[in-house]
Every structure is written in C-alpha cells, then in structure tokens.
C-alpha cells in the first residue's frame, strides 16, 4: 500500500481516478478491527485480488487529510474504512468488519 505523503496528494489521487479506480484505506494504529482489515487488504494486494492502486491514510498521523477526504468525497468518517473512487466520485465504501476484499467492486 502506498502512503499519502502530502495533503495535496488527495487531489492528485482523485484526478487519477478518471484514468482508473483508486482505493483509499483509512487505518487506525490503535484499533484491533483496523488491524484485521489491514491484514485482509495486504493479503488482497499480495494475491493480486485488488486490481486498483491502494493508498493508506493512518488517521492518527493524517487526521487533517482524513477530514479532507470526508469533506471532498462527502463520505462519513469511519475508521477503518475503504473508499473506492472512480471518475472523481466515491462509488463504494465500507467500514469495520464490512471491509472484505471479495466485496470490493471489480469494475
């Protein structure tokens, strides 16, 4: 998973979603549910089950960015949470135990 390096990256990622869908994973370092979701996401990436670029936002380190995602994409904040962005719009999101690789839309 790629980490957001700077706040302006969000707009670049959203713009990139016009070319191909992008998945954002909001992760909490202190939550056991988030740890499980992190393991599932990494497994999906390693097994090439996830076909999209995946970007991670550690909410304790990037709270401002997490808030920006909520505002720009009009998504209620959850943690852990995955958000699939396509054509500059959030087209799918899931949180907590609902984060399952096989539930992520493939197209």
TrEMBL record:
Gene3D superfamilies: Glutaredoxin (3.40.30.10). It holds the Pfam family BrxC. InterPro entries: BrxC. NCBIfam families: B_thiol_YtxJ (TIGR04019). This is Bacillithiol system redox-active protein YtxJ.
